[in-house]
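Hi F.,

I've been meaning to write this up properly since the lab meeting, where we talked about keeping a consistent format for the predictions we share between groups. The idea is simple: the sequence comes first, exactly as it goes in, then the structure tokens exactly as they come out, then a line or two of notes. No screenshots and no reformatting. I'm using this chain as the first example so we have something concrete to point to.
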Amino acid sequence: DLAPVMRWVNFLLERRFFPEAINEILPKPDPILLDMPLSEIPPCLSDLIRESIEDDSNGIFTNRHIQGYPQANFQELYRRRIIKQESWGEISQALGIKVPTLSDFYQRSIRYFSSEIRNQIQN
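Output, unedited:
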């Protein structure tokens, strides 16, 4: 039974990888934000990242996909995994692609897009 292993992998991806990727993408928040009135604090970092990936103004997040599977693009995997909270197993079953292939592509894509996301958020 692979369920315990998959739960562990999902836990690592959700609890460790995504926060680490965010830290890699963006610098630490400015301590001045702690002194600002709530109404002046910029939108939540995760909202800014989601907006950047969802808007995909230049099409880069949908253009990067698993070879031979254009439907398995970075934007779609992000939506399913982070926004819809689908497990890698569910995504694998829906797209017909093995879990390691999906998660490896997703991790490589986050590293690949880190500077682009940073630039979009800071502008």
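Notes:
The longest strand covers residues 69-73.
The mean pLDDT is 78.

If this format works for you, I'll send the rest the same way.

G.
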